C-alpha cells in the first residue's frame, strides 16, 4: 500500500510480520498466475494467524486452496502441481504438525530433481510457523529446522523481522528449488517499517549483521534475533560490545559473513530455541571452529533448549533462551 | 575367447551356494540365458542363466560342492577373437567429466559385474567389504588444519562497512580489539606464562603464534612496555599486565586475608660467612654457587623441623589448618619480568649439596625467564633476599597459601659486642612475617631465634639436624 | 478373517472380463471393445515384447549386471491394456514395476535399467513421454498424481492423470489421502490398482477385508474390478475411466485383478510363503496365451506372425542386454550434480574439495 504525501509517494509503511508476509504473498500472486497458496484454513479463514487473510477473496478458490486436514496430502499434491508447472506455497499450520508430511518432504520434494537428473524442478515453498513463547499446548512451539537443514535438496530459511519477511517470502516463491520457510510465530505481531518497493534487498541466502560490535558475535535466526538484540543492549551496561548476526538462511549458510565477524571478535555464541543437542548450533560451532581456529579466544558456545520435549507453557520461560541465558553464555566465553 | 562366469550374488543374502545340478557339460553348445545350473542358497534353489553363448569348455565346480560368491563356475568359449571390444563412448545422459587437467582417474570404475568383495544383502548389490590398505597417493596430503587461519582472512582492525547494516546500533565503545592468531593450547600457555599475545610476533603459518613464539616472548627481556611519553609530558602511563598484574593480585590476596605480624632479629653471621668460604673449596660444591642464602635456607629447613606449625596453611573452606610435612621452599627472585617465587620441591629431603644445586638452578632458570607455572605453585614457606638490593630489612608479605616468610637483609660490617669488646663483625638482619591466625608470637619468636642461632653458629644446624 | 479375498481359480463376481483365459470373447453389459485385427495383433506384440524385456532383465540380475529387478511377469495385460488407453496429453505415475506402461509411452527400456543397475535413481525426463519417474516409497505417487490432476483442472486442459499402485499400497496413508483429495476436488485422475494378490509375502487379506475396488465408494467415487489378465477388458475399462476424468466427472478406482507370477523382486524367494498349486492355477490364466489363442482361433494371425514376433522379442532382448552392459558408470563428481536448480555455495565447496582430494591419488592403471 502506498501513502501519498504532498510531493512524494512513499512505499514505506509499518507492518506486522504477519501482515508483511501477507503483502509478500499478495505481490507474488499478482506477478505470477502460477503461484498458488494451499493449506488448512488458509482460504476462507485467512489462516489461523491471518497470514493469508483476504487472499482467497481477491485471487479465488482455485488459487487459494482450503485443503483437507492432511499434511502429507498438502505436500504430495503440491509436488504434483509443481510437476504440472505451478508454484505452490504450502502452509503447515503449526511446526509440530509438519511431521506427517516428513515423508513427502524428505523422500519426494528434496530428491526428485536428482532422481530426474535435473529434468524436474519443484518450486514449492513450505511455510511453517515455528517456535515457542506463545503459551500454547503441545506441538505448537516446536523448532524442527534441523530435520530440514540436514536433508540435502531442500533450502531452509527463517525470517526474523517484517522487512525480511516481506522480501524473503517473495524470493522463496521465485526460487526454483523447494524452500522450507520458517516464520517466528511469537514475532508475528512485531511491527516495523517495510519499504514495499525496495529494490536493493539482500539475497535470500545472505546473513545480516543487525548490530555491530567488537567483543563477541551472537548468531541467531527467527525468534531469537530479537532476544539477542535485547541482550546486546543490556550488555552495554557491562561494557560489552556485542555483534548480532541474523543468519536468515540455514541452508545454504552465509559462512562468509559469519567467519568475518568471528575472526574479528574472536568469540561466538549461538542462540536458538531448539534443543542444543544436535541442534543447528552444532553445525555452526563445528564449521566456525574449523575455519576460525586460530582466531578463537574461546570455544563456540551454544544456548538453546534442553534435551527434553518442549515443556508445558507454564514452564516454557525457563526452557526458552532469554536475555539472561544469552548474557550468561557471553560471560562464559570470557572466562577462557 | 574363454569367458568365465563367476557365481553372482543372486540377491538373497548368500555368501556361498551349493551346486545342485549342472544342466550342461563340457562340449555342449549353450545359448544366451539358457539355464546352465541350479544352485541352492540358504532356503531355495535358483536357476542361473548363462551370460554367454558358445561352447562349454569347463565346469569349474562339482555337483554338491559349496562355492563362494565370485568364484568362477563355468568356462565358455564364445568364439570371439581374443581382443576385448573397447568400451562404448558414454551415452548422452551421463555426466561430463570434470574439467581437471592431467590424468586424473577419480574413483574406481566398477565395470559391469559387482566385484566379489561385496557381501550380499536382501536388496541391491550387497555390502562391499572394506579396503585393508590405503590407496597410493601421488602428492603429499594437504597439511592438517587445511587452510591456516582462514582463506583471505586478514586480522581486521576495523568494523565491517556500514552498508551491510541497515540500521546499525552504534557500538558503545570505539576501541577495536586487536586480533591475535593462536590455537587454544598456545593461548593457554601464554596465559600461564603471563605473555600478552598482542605483543608477540607470530612465526607460524599465516602469522599464527606458536608455542616457541610464546616461550621466546616469556624469556626475552621485557621490551619496555612503556608508552613513550611525549617530550615535556607530566605523566607517563605503564599498562598493568602480565607478571606484574599477577603478582599484584597475589599480594593483595595475601595482604588482606592473613593478619601479618613481622618480627626482627639482628644476627652476627661472621661464622656463616666463613663457612660459606670453606664450603666453596669442597669438591661437593664445585657445581653449585654457594652463598650465605644456602645456609639461611638450611637453617630455615632445620628450624621448620623443630617447629612444624610454621610450615602450614589456613584452609578457610575446610575450617582446618593444614600442617605440611614436606617443605616446598620458595625463593623470591627478581627477574626481568618481575618478581617470581619459584619453589624447590621437597627441599627438606635434600642434602646440602643438592640444596645448593637446586638453589642455583632455580635462580638461573628464573633469571632466564623459563620458570614453569608448576614451579611456582605448591610452595609451603618462602625466603626473600632483600639484601641483594642493599637494604637491611623489610616487612615481607606472605605468599598466599603460606604461613611464614623470611626476609634476609644485606650482610655488612657492623660494630658488635664480643666478649665485652666492640669489634667489627658481619651482621645481617632477619625479618619473619607470619600469619597470626596460625602462628602466635611465641612460635614465631622461637622459630626466628632458632634460625638466627644457626646462622650465628653453623655448628648448631649440625647439632639440631 | 471370514472373508476370503480369494486366490482360487474361479473368477470372483463383479469382475469385468471380455476375453476368457481360453481366448473366447465374452460380452459385458457396460464395457465393450472395438478393435481392428491389426490393433489386436499390436496388443499381442506389446505383451510379448514387454515380457521378453522383463525376462531379460531378470537374467541380467542373475548374472550380476543389475543389483535388483522388479518383474512384472503375469501383469502384462493390466499394464498394456491400461497403457494403451492413454492419450499423449495424459500423464502416467507408475510405481517401480510398470515397465509395460513405460513401453506404451515409448520410454526406452534401457532407461528403466539404469535405476536397477545403480547408475541413477531414475534419470529420465517425465515430460518427454508423460511418464513420471519410478517411485520407490510405496504409494507416494498417488498424491503427486492427484496434485497433477488438480493442475490439469486449473489449466482447463483435456487430459487426465493415471496413477499405478499395488494392493499393498492401499494400506498406506498417502494413498488414502489421495482418495480424499481426488474426491473432494473432483480431480481428473484414474487410480489403477494392480491387485497382484501379494505385497512381498503379505497376502491380500492383510491389507483389506473387502474387495479393493469397493474402497472407492467409501470415499465417494466409482470403483470397478477388471480381470487384470484380460488386455481387452483393461483397455476398455481404463478408456472409460480416463474419459470420465477428462470430462470432469472425477476419479475412478480400477482394481485390476491379476497375479504376481514372479517374486516381489529378484531378492525375494516366494517359495517361502506361496504354494506351488496357486502358481499353477494362475498359469492357466496367462494373459498372453489367451490373446494368442484368440488370434489363432479367429485366424487373425498365422504361425509366421507369431514366429516374427518371437524373433523380434529375441532381438529386443539382445539389444537390451547389449546396451545394459555398455552402460557406463557415472563419474564420481556426478554425486554433486542436479541436487539443486540454483547455485548452492556449500555444495560447490564440497565438490571442489572432493575433486581436489581425488586428485591426490595415483591413477588406477
Automatic annotation (TrEMBL), chain A:
Keywords of the record: Oxidoreductase, Pyruvate, Thiamine pyrophosphate
Q: Which cofactor does it need?
A: thiamine diphosphate
Every copy of the Transketolase-like pyrimidine-binding domain together lies at: 15-190
Q: Give the GO molecular function terms.
A: magnesium ion binding; oxidoreductase activity
* Claim: Ion transport is one of the keywords in the record: no
- One short Pfam name that applies is Transketolase_C
Q: At the top level of its lineage, which domain of life is listed?
A: Bacteria
Signal peptide span: none
Q: Which SMART domains match?
A: Transket_pyr
Which CDD domains does the record associate with it? TPP_PYR_E1-PDHc-beta_like
Oxidoreductase is among the record's keywords: yes
Which PANTHER family does this chain map to? PYRUVATE DEHYDROGENASE E1 COMPONENT BETA SUBUNIT, PYRUVATE DEHYDROGENASE E1 COMPONENT SUBUNIT BETA
Protein's UniProt name: Pyruvate dehydrogenase E1 component beta subunit
Phylogenetic placement of the source organism = Bacteria, Bacillati, Actinomycetota, Actinomycetes, Streptosporangiales
TrEMBL record, chain C:
**Membrane-crossing residues?**
none
Identify a single GO molecular function assigned to this protein.
oxidoreductase activity, acting on the aldehyde or oxo group of donors, disulfide as acceptor
| Protein name (database record) | Pyruvate dehydrogenase E1 component alpha subunit
Report if keyword Oxidoreductase is assigned.
yes
Q: Name the cofactor(s).
A: thiamine diphosphate
InterPro entries referenced in this protein's UniProt entry, alphabetically? Alpha-ketoacid_DH_E1_comp (IPR050771), DH_E1 (IPR001017), PdhA/BkdA (IPR017596), THDP-binding (IPR029061)
Alphabetically sorted, this entry's keywords are: Oxidoreductase, Pyruvate, Thiamine pyrophosphate
- Dehydrogenase E1 component domain location is 48-318
Gene3D superfamilies from the UniProt entry: 3.40.50.970
Establish whether keyword Cell membrane is in the entry: no
Which Pfam families does the record match to this protein?
A: E1_dh
Biological process terms in GO annotation:
branched-chain amino acid catabolic process
